[in-house]
Design a protein that fits this description.
With 381 residues, the chain is an alpha+beta fold. The chain has two domains: 115 residues, Phosphorylase Kinase, domain 1 (2-Layer Sandwich), CATH 3.30.200; 226 residues, Aminoglycoside phosphotransferase (APH), C-terminal lobe (Aminoglycoside 3'-phosphotransferase, Chain: A, domain 2, Alpha-Beta Complex), CATH 3.90.1200. Helices cover 38% and strands 15% of the residues. The protein contains ten helices and nine strands. Strands 1-2-3-5-4 form a five-stranded antiparallel beta sheet, sandwiched between helices. It has a two-stranded antiparallel sheet with strand order 6-9. A two-stranded antiparallel ribbon has the order 7-8. A hairpin with a 2-residue loop joins strand 7 and strand 8. Helix 3 crosses helix 8 and helix 6 runs parallel beside helix 10. It is globular and about 65 Å long.
Length: 381
């Protein structure tokens, strides 16, 4: 999310504060840290360091250019560092386990054909740069923009031919199918089991989402609408939950690097979990729908033929032989988690002085009206 959609309040591009970290200090710390990781005499230098806001605000992402000596020859690498956010910067999630993210990416790359970045190092000790982090290899590609949302127009995906948009859609669904085909997920990825209570993976996943909301709602940000939503989930629980797969957790095209219209790297694994395959498919569908809703709110045509729920479900079933059930339930769960993100990013905007505290907490929810329609059974039809 979290990986998460930055939903602006106007059509003007919005720069939202993400971190108060001193990048000069980070750069010096990374050079010292690399010197301890590489062979003696490597003399590493960070020749470039740039923050990116291309995908979400859950972790801080830095693009690095590094050079060092290796076996008497100069070596240069383009790297990406993922940093846990500072607690003072009002982070989106209550906890950040960077080692867990590193291990998920490593294992997915090892046991499947899902494209992921190559992982280099994980550093759980915050001493080096003031926070835990891990380092990946850089992958060339382009990402559908969040700000402004790609459905607003004037970007490579919106302006692509319909057949190319469909190629991207089908290739992304194919990546999910390959992910869900990983065998023995509960054995291989048992460390992803939520700590929340529940007698099934879905019960634990929803309990974990509720705990996340409770964290985001602290300090005066409780949402009556979100709380109604969790009650709705309890009242509409699926009769059959389906088998457990490895779930990406933040399955949206804004978390994918594409080369042409084909995924080159699947990113942002902080929400990875174990649960029914519908978790990812409904998230993929709703992650587009929320941008469609925003486009419609501004009177824009959007991309109504892209990522249609029936098309996504049919493609997935054709690839896997597995039908999808209760997508309205899973889509509403996705919408509640997006609402949780909006509560937290709203609190962040207040913290950084970018916005005044709202008169009504539900005003922070950029998906308020669609979520209200979900709870009355009008949205998913």
């Amino acid at each position: 999310m979290t990986s998460e959609a930055d939903a602006p309040a106007s059509r003007e591009a919005v720069g939202m504060a993400r971190s108060s970290r001193d990048h000069a200090q980070v750069r010096a710390g990374l050079e010292r840290w690399l010197a301890g990781r590489l062979p003696e005499g490597a003399a590493p230098r960070i020749t470039g360091l740039e923050a990116t806001s291309a995908t979400g605000m859950s972790n801080e992402t830095l693009l690095l250019s590094a050079s060092w000596q290796e076996r008497g020859e100069a070596r240069s690498e383009r790297l990406v560092a993922r940093l846990a956010p500072d607690r003072a910067d009002v982070p989106v999630f209550p906890r950040y386990d960077l080692e867990r993210q590193f291990e998920v990416i490593r294992l997915v790359g090892e046991v499947s054909e899902v494209p992921v970045p190559p992982v280099w190092w994980s550093e759980p000790d915050p001493e080096a740069i003031g926070t835990p982090f891990f380092v990946m290899g850089h992958v060339d590609g382009r990402v559908p923009p969040d700000v402004m949302p790609y459905t607003f127009g004037d970007n490579w995906l919106h302006d692509a031919a319909p057949e190319d948009q469909r190629r991207l859609q089908d290739a992304t669904v194919s990546a999910l199918a390959r992910l869900h085909a990983i065998e023995r997920p509960e054995e291989r990825f048992g460390f992803l089991r939520p700590d929340a209570p529940g007698d099934t993976p879905l019960r634990r996943r929803v309990a974990d989402a509720r705990a996340w909301y409770d964290f985001a709602a602290a300090d005066g940000f409780r949402s009556p609408l979100v709380e109604r939503g969790f009650a709705w989930l309890d009242a509409h629980w699926p009769a059959r939950e389906g088998e457990t797969v490895l779930s990406w957790g933040d399955a949206r095209i804004g978390n994918v690097l594409y080369q042409g219209f084909t995924p080159a790297a699947v990113l942002d694994w902080e929400m990875a979990t174990l649960g029914p395959r519908e978790l990812d498919l409904a998230w993929l569908i709703y992650a587009h729908r929320i941008f469609e809703d925003l486009a419609g709110a501004f009177g824009l045509p959007g991309m109504p033929g892209f990522m249609r729920g029936d098309d996504v479900a049919a493609r997935y079933e054709a690839l896997t032989g597995h039908g999808l059930a209760d997508l309205a339930f899973y889509g509403t769960l996705a919408a509640l988690q997006y609402a949780t993100v909006f509560l937290r990013t709203g609190a962040r905007s207040v913290h950084f002085g970018e916005a005044e505290p709202p008169a009504e907490v539900d005003d922070l929810l950029h998906n308020r009206e669609p979520l209200e329609r979900m709870l009355t059974g009008e949205y998913w039809t």
